[in-house]
Specification:
This protein is of the alpha+beta class and about 625 residues long. It has a domain of about 170 residues: Alpha-Beta Plaits (2-Layer Sandwich). The chain has 27 helices and 9 strands. Strands 1, 2, 3, 4, 5, 6, 7, 8 and 9 form a 9-stranded antiparallel β-sheet that branches. Helix 20 packs parallel to helix 23 and helix 24 packs antiparallel against helix 27. The longest helix is centred in the N-terminal third of the chain and has 26 residues. It is elongated and about 100 Å long.
């Protein structure tokens, strides 16, 4: 251990200890700080420090996040969610459907993006069924993690390991080339070096799935069987949603292309929306009231609801269902994307006081359309267009993006506030976005078999596949360029880039080799014991730190362990890739675990209670299968 080794190792330990003892510390800033330290002290060159930012892992993750956002903004995920859980009424069937859908999907969709997309779907289902999200959200995270290890592109962790392998493979090729030109090079050493170079090659798409798939299957079975007994039932998380808030009166028109036509009220899901009640159906002047669950919805029907604003937002997302209070309402998806839902309270000086909703000039005065009306303590009539506006009325408006800036200080309104989660969907682009999503999956499958040389080189790269489809999503306006930029998690990408640079410092300084030599000596020449130590090291560090950083730091150490012991590096590489990807015991080890912590109202010990059987099973399966598939 020279001075550079101590600097690299000390910096890495300092970053990890800070992350462990200060949970709120910014991960990206810490790893960038560590990268700056090892660069300024001369452990690595500036070029080596910046290599992480051009890593294929970084580019692939960025592209996949944009593609996932495109599927979300076009309503593809809403459709998937309806098909997945729409008619399910209890927990066990819902858990089974999550197993059968999330595991295979997360094999091809980055699991962080998948949890971000599926969380609103599952939360909405929980609200409609009055089931605590604590019974559902943790399985969403765990199942996406399990599915992520079935392919190379299912989780950012395997992409980080693969990015490190690309660099390590190049370095080993260089060393092997130097051996070949040395006049006194030992033939056995040359042969060992050649085999070693081949075994640190980048992973193919389905290679990790040879162990990952059995882990996913058995882990899912354990979670499905034991989950109902171990998952907490925190009722408070539902009570917050179902509390009584101000109720609006809203009248919706069923357009000729609406997806609800010819469905019964119950089949359309209009009796299961929380905080919403279907008062009557106006069919060409004929009133149907009270509305029965078996009543059929026809094109041209006017559906009158009373309900809370959050559920009215859900109604707004149904294609072909539009409010009738203002004929200027934007119904075309392309134009609708330029507008938001906003709540306003009319002041005493508002010039529209005394006029009806139908006759009010909201379009001319404010470039806004009335969606619904609330009047505290007064039961409004069922004809929203005939309501005469009064001071203190709360209106739900469809407004332009600049409405807040233009009328924030207007004396016409007491209060103006945007409605969270009301961004409209581009339903006209849903078929195109879904097709591009399927094309991406097909392309990623091809990368697992395409030759990396010649004209097929571009098609063999997962990064090029993800970036190309992301570009098509933006080009065909499935999402805007600003939405694409917002979808890219810069904090995640900077953390990975910094961790890759610090991993290079450990490798170049000799610290990784020194740690590897000590681990080999500890194992006493037993490769299986060494594999268990490497796997447990990866698993423990992942649970207390974070997955991508651990994967980047430990991959060169695993390779050095194999070289020091004279073993095949492939089993140790796979042990790191799997142990750093399969985090079930804490909310801090994996980003998806943190993402469901708030919605599920979980506490840290809930993860340990639910996750330990899954962690035990996948660890056992991994340690049994890895040496059987990739021999020492």
């Amino acid at each position: 251990m020279n001075l550079d080794s101590w600097i690299a190792l000390g910096t890495t330990v300092a970053v990890f200890l800070t992350l462990y003892f200060r949970r709120g510390a910014p991960t990206d800033l810490l790893f960038m700080g560590g990268l700056v330290v090892v660069t300024l002290t001369g452990v690595i060159s500036p070029a080596q420090a910046l290599n992480g930012f051009s890593s294929t892992a970084i580019l692939t993750i960025a592209g996949l996040l944009v593609c996932a956002e495109g599927l979300k903004t076009t309503g593809v995920l809403d459709w998937v969610g309806h098909k997945l859980l729409g008619q399910v009424k209890s927990e066990r069937p819902a858990h089974l459907r999550l197993v059968l859908s999330l595991v295979p999907t997360s094999a091809f969709v980055l699991n962080t993006a998948l949890v971000a997309m599926m969380s609103p779907v599952v939360l909405d289902w929980c609200r409609k069924r009055n089931i605590s999200p604590s019974r559902m959200m943790l399985p969403v995270s765990y199942l996406s993690i399990l599915g992520g290890v079935c392919t190379l592109v299912g989780t950012s962790t395997t992409l980080v390991v693969n990015g490190e392998l690309v660099q390590q493979h190049s370095e080993e090729l260089l060393r092997h080339g130097q051996l070949l030109i040395e006049p006194r090079a030992d033939d056995d050493l040359i042969a060992r070096s050649a085999a070693f170079v081949d075994n640190v090659r980048p992973m193919k798409l389905f290679e990790i799935g040879r162990v990952g798939l059995p882990c996913a299957v058995l882990g899912s079975i354990v979670l499905f069987l034991l989950g109902p007994f171990l998952l907490p039932n925190i009722r408070g998380s539902v009570a917050n949603w179902t509390e009584e808030r101000r109720e609006y009166l809203v009248e919706m028109f069923v357009q000729s292309d609406c997806s609800l036509i010819d469905q019964t009220v119950e089949a359309a899901g209009l009796r299961q929306l929380p905080g919403l009640f279907l008062i009557e159906i106006d069919r060409e002047g004929q009133l149907i009231t009270p509305v029965a669950p078996t009543d059929i919805i026809h094109g041209g029907d006017r559906l009158v609801f009373t309900g809370i604003v959050g559920t009215i937002v859900d109604l707004e997302k149904i294609p072909g269902l539009v409010p009738t209070a203002d004929l200027g309402y934007e119904a075309q998806p392309a134009k609708k994307r330029l507008r938001n839902l906003t709540e306003v309270v009319l002041s005493r000086t508002c010039p529209l006081n005394g006029s009806t909703v139908r006759d009010g000039t909201f379009r001319q005065r404010y470039n806004a359309a009335v969606v619904a009306v609330h009047r505290n303590g007064v039961r409004l009539t069922n004809k929203i267009g005939d309501i005469s506006l009064e001071p203190g009325d709360t209106l739900l408006l469809q407004t332009s993006r600049d409405f807040m800036d233009n009328f924030r200080n207007s004396r016409d309104f007491y209060l103006i506030s945007p409605v969270e989660g009301s961004t409209p969907r581009r339903h006209d682009k849903s078929l195109l976005a879904g097709s591009l999503g399927l094309l991406l999956i097909l392309w990623l499958c091809v990368t697992g078999f395409a030759d990396a040389g010649g004209i097929a080189a571009g098609f063999s790269s997962p990064a090029i596949a993800a970036l190309s489809i992301a570009g098509f999503m933006v080009m065909f306006r499935c999402l805007s360029i600003n939405e694409a930029r917002s979808a890219i998690d810069l904090s995640l990408l900077v953390t990975i880039a910094g961790a890759l640079g610090m991993a290079t410092a450990l490798n170049e300084s000799g610290a990784a080799q020194s740690i590897a030599n000590r681990l080999v000596n500890f194992a006493g020449g037993h490769p299986m014991l060494l594999l268990i130590v490497v796997y447990l090291l990866g698993m423990v560090l992942t649970e207390i730190i974070t997955n991508n950083a651990v994967a980047a730091i430990l991959t060169p150490i695993a390779i050095s362990v194999a070289w020091s012991g004279g073993y095949n590096p492939r089993p140790f590489i796979m042990a790191i890739a799997l142990s750093a990807s399969l985090s079930f015991l804490t909310p801090f080890g994996y980003q998806t675990n943190l993402m469901v912590m708030g919605p599920g109202n979980y506490r840290p010990h809930d993860y340990l209670r639910v996750g330990w059987p899954v962690a035990l099973v996948v660890a056992t399966v991994s340690l049994v299968l890895i040496p059987m598939i990739w021999s020492f």
